[in-house]
Amino acid sequence: MFLFYRYYSTGGTRRIQYFSSISAVGFLIYLHILQLLIIIDKLNWFPMEESDTKLVKYGKMAFFFLPIFIIIALLVKEKDLRDAEYDEDKIRTGGRWLVVYIVFSFVLTFVLAAALAKKA
């Protein structure tokens, strides 16, 4: 989370870096939930209908995302991120591993989705 917080501390996201960090970590958690649902073949449990309007779909997704967002916000306080200090070498190494982790997560999701599509 610190790596995301530091990344979002510059540029246009400087004023919302804590929110952006929580969102990024939450997105990765939900990506893993999606992967798990594909693996156990329970992807169809989410109550999303094709006839739903865009607004309803966005509302359902926001409602689905909210619990994890709140849990992360309760567990990781902005003050703790702001006050954290790490060696620059660890930050650089952690940043590289974070990129590898994110790429691997997306590749795994696409491979699982392709396997699911082939199965259907």
Outline the fold blueprint:
Layout: H1 2-7, H2 17-39, H3 54-75, H4 78-83, H5 88-119
Helix pairs in contact: 2-3, 2-5
Describe the protein in words.
The chain is mostly helical. The protein has one domain (about 1-120). About 75% of the residues lie in helices and about 0% in strands. It is built from five helices and no strands. It has helices spanning about 1-5, 15-40, 55-75, 80-85, 90-120. Helix 2 (about 15-40) crosses helix 3. It starts with a helix and ends with a helix. The model has no long low-confidence stretch (mean pLDDT about 90).
Which labels suit this protein?
single chain; 120 residues
Radius of gyration: 17 Å
Q: How many distinct helices?
A: 5
Structural class: mainly alpha
Helical residue percent?
over 70%
Mean pLDDT score, rounded? 90
- How much strand? under 5%
User: How many strand elements?
Assistant: 0
Name the shape in a single word.
Answer: globular
Whole-number total of structural domains: 1
Helix-strand pattern: HHHHH
Strand count, sense and barrel status of the largest sheet are: none
Give the low-confidence spans: none
Distance between the termini: 37 Å
